[in-house]
Write a structure and sequence with these properties.
Elements (H helix, E strand, L loop, with lengths): L2 E7 L3 E3 L2 E9 L5 E7 L3 E7 L2 E13 L4 E2 L5 E14 L8 E13 L3 E8 L2 E25 L4 E5 L18 E5 L9 E2 L2 E4 L5 E7 L7 E6 L2 E6 L3 E6 L8 E6 L4 E8 L2 E7 L9 H5 L16 E2 L19 H14 L3 E4 L4 E2 L2 E5 L5 H11 L2 E7 H6 L1 H10 L4 E5 L6 H17 L2 E4 L8 H4 L5 E2 L16 H6 L19 E2 L13 E2 L2 H10 L6 E2 L3 H5 L2 H8 L7 E8 L3 E8 L2 E8 L4 E6 L8 E8 L10 E8 L4 E6 L4 E8 L1
Parallel strand pairs: 23-24, 23-33, 24-27, 27-28, 28-29, 29-30, 31-32
Antiparallel strand pairs: 1-8, 2-3, 3-4, 4-5, 5-6, 6-7, 6-11, 8-9, 9-10, 10-11, 11-18, 11-21, 11-22, 12-13, 12-15, 14-17, 15-16, 16-22, 17-18, 19-20, 25-26, 34-35, 35-36, 36-41, 37-40, 38-39, 38-41
Subunit structure: Monomer.
Cofactor: Ca(2+)
Pfam family, one: Glyco_hydro_97
Length: 656
């Protein structure tokens, strides 16, 4: 049900030599206040619990005809409304029913544009709306965020490439942590970033509803962060070095977007809260355009396997492992044995530049028939440039093979042209009833609400980095739920079964290990949002541990509700997910061991059975060590859990 209350307001007051318009609105719970002032410019300030959080910060949009939306602005009309709504999520990533409750201020200006501001209990957002005739060119957008008290910023910085400009990135970097005034003004960050001070709440700065417009990078400007947008690409070339060719921009325009004059623009979003609030927030999802799909019955979340990280280094098999029919039949058998819904054929099943040129030794008709006989679906990796060129015939071929989920990879940009590639591919996949996952991708920014079959996304430094670096540490892993995951689902690809301490770890291709314990890897399947989590471990090793794999294979991937039971930014997190009458709890810690006591008051009355997989007594020395526990509990009890350094746990609670 929807209840909307609308009040028409207009006020101007004398302010020096200018006329000042001010309007203040509060979040439904009264904790967050946004103050909009209009004089020579339009500025937004934010208070949290009565304390300044963001100082007056300007916003504007410069058009190709010289018009600047936001300067010398005059308010024509002002509207305030309170909305109480609910969204039934087609894919229940965090929760099935998403409550959408906010207070909105709309300011209509001379010049045919409106600024919309929303105050939620968990953040604020604003966006431009234009009603200009015909098409428009956007030369630039001013998005400035002036935070109080020189806060600390957690940010992923773009690393310069030698073969492309600074707007090319895979959006996969570790977080750097510095006071705002110590960040170089030449550093370009990609969002989301986290901003925090000693006395205030945490703030995740990001965007939502990114459609037909470039994504927002961030850079320091004095005591503020400012939005930076990739100019529109005018010329591109295909790379020739490296394993996977991709299109890089060689010449850019003097504008960032060319678009219709009647539209809404992306939301600039501040998700605000304490440590327990951020990982459970779905504010970015709520702000996005509602689903463009009328039929979502064919979207089927579930668990998937992948072989790329382990380089198909199987053992105890009577065939030569590789990209061949026998290997993928083995993966099908593995998926069926442990309750996985599909397997992914990663890079190499076809020529990278021709999806119809199958790798010799791989008999697709035979594999398709075998997978169908076992009730396991096939999923396919694609190179973005190739999929773009062969889109319709490739999707037709995938349909014939019974493929319901594909990955496309190596976009590594978020200028307007590339953003529109995502929409074009999503539209085509929807017609073919095929789910899509983007790798080499920018953050979701609510895209999964608009296109529910765009079910998960990379845009995160994940398991694959264990192949060649030391970057995927438990410290990094524990930051992700508070920052990157706030923007939407993320494909980390956990499940590595060779686990090491900080001192033991080595990046070894083909014998990939993870930093931290086995249970740390297991817990990611619950702590991280992803309706199709991908198991990246070696199936041959997994076959030797059937109880562990049965436990992993039994996990749900969508949930009726999500709660954060305990959390501290960068230290640890405990997530509880509800499915029917049962709950699944997962916890991660950084390199510090810790003991947790978890009250169970969120349960209903009655006895419950608990089955858990915990760090073993020797996990601090041999992180592969784990143990199972089983007991009966009630809501008046507490769980006492020990997490080894780099450790974790996973517990399933079912009503008896």
């Amino acid at each position: 049900m929807r209840a909307v209350f609308v009040v028409l307001l207009l006020a101007e007051a004398a302010f020096g030599q200018t006329r000042l318009f001010e309007r203040e609105v509060q979040s439904p719970d009264g904790r967050i206040t946004l103050l909009v002032s209009v004089a020579d410019s339009i500025r937004l300030a934010v208070r949290y619990a009565g304390q300044p959080l963001m100082q007056p910060s300007p916003m504007a949009m410069t058009l190709g005809n010289g018009q600047v939306l936001g300067l010398t602005a005059k308010v024509q009309r002002s509207h305030v409304r309170t909305v109480r709504d609910s969204i039934l999520a087609p894919v229940a990533t965090k929760r099935r029913v998403v409550h959408d409750h906010y207070v909105e201020l709309s300011l209509e200006f001379n010049g045919n544009y409106t600024l919309e501001f929303r105050a939620y209990n968990d953040g604020v957002a604003y966006r431009f709306r234009t009603t200009l005739p015909d098409s428009i060119t956007v030369r630039d957008e001013t998005a400035r965020f002036v935070f109080a008290n020189n806060p600390t910023v957690y940010y992923p910085a773009v690393q310069p490439r030698t073969d492309a400009d600074r707007f090319h990135t895979s959006f996969e970097e570790p977080y750097q942590i510095r006071p705002l005034n110590e960040i170089s003004d030449t550093t370009l960050c990609f969002s989301p970033v986290l901003v925090t001070s000693a006395s205030g709440p945490r703030v995740v700065l990001t965007e939502s509803d990114l459609l037909d417009y470039p994504g927002m990078f961030l850079a320091r400007a004095g005591i503020s962060l400012k939005g930076v947008f990739a100019p529109y690409p005018l010329a591109e070339r295909m790379t020739t070095g490296g394993e996977f060719p991709q299109a890089v921009v060689t010449r850019r325009a003097d504008f960032i977007a060319r678009t219709t004059g009647r539209r809404t623009f992306p939301w600039r979003v501040l998700v605000i809260g304490q440590d327990r609030d951020l990982p459970a927030s779905d504010l970015v999802y709520r702000l996005a355009t509602p689903s463009r799909l009328t039929d979502v019955s064919w979207i089927r979340p579930g668990k998937c396997t992948d072989e790329w990280i382990t380089n198909i280094n199987l053992f105890n098999v009577p065939f030569r492992a590789g990209i061949n029919t026998a290997t993928y039949k083995y993966y099908v058998d593995f998926a069926k044995r442990f309750g996985f819904d599909r397997i992914l054929l990663d890079a190499g099943w076809s020529d990278y530049q021709d999806l119809f040129k199958i790798t010799p030794g791989l008999d697709m008709p035979e594999l398709v028939a075998y997978a169908r006989s076992q009730g396991v679906r096939l999923s396919m990796w694609t190179l973005a440039a190739t999929l773009d060129r062969q889109l319709e015939p490739a999707l037709n071929q995938f349909q014939a093979w019974g493929v319901d989920f594909i990955m496309t990879d190596f976009m590594d940009r978020d200028d307007q042209k590339m953003v529109n590639f995502y929409t074009r591919v999503a539209d085509a996949c929807a017609k073919a009833k095929i789910m899509i996952m983007f790798h080499g991708a920018y953050k979701p920014a609510g895209f999964e609400r608009t296109y529910p079959h765009a079910i998960t996304r990379e845009g995160v430094l994940g398991s694959e980095y264990n192949i060649w670096s030391r970057k995927a540490t438990p410290d990094h892993d524990v930051l992700l739920p508070f920052i990157r995951m706030v923007s939407g689902p993320m494909d980390y690809e956990p499940g590595l079964l060779n686990n090491a301490t900080k001192e033991q770890f080595r990046p070894i291709a083909g014998q990939v290990m993870s930093q931290g314990t086995r249970c740390h890897q297991l817990a990611m399947f619950v702590v991280y949002d992803s309706p199709i989590p991908i198991f990246s471990g070696n199936p041959s090793q997994a076959m030797l541990e059937p109880r562990f794999m049965d436990f992993l294979g039994s996990l749900p991937t969508t949930y009726d509700e999500t709660r954060i039971l305990d959390a501290q930014l960068g230290e640890y997190i405990v997530t509880a997910r509800q499915t029917g009458n049962g709950w699944t709890l997962g916890g991660l810690t950084n390199w510090s061991a810790r003991d947790l006591v978890l009250p169970l008051g969120f349960l209903a009355n009655g006895p419950y059975e608990v089955i858990g997989c915990l760090d073993g007594p020797n996990a601090d020395r041999n992180p592969v060590d784990y143990q199972f526990m089983q007991q009966t509990i009630a809501r008046t009890d507490s769980l006492r859990l020990h997490l080894a350094p780099g450790g974790g746990f996973l517990v399933r609670i079912r009503r008896k």
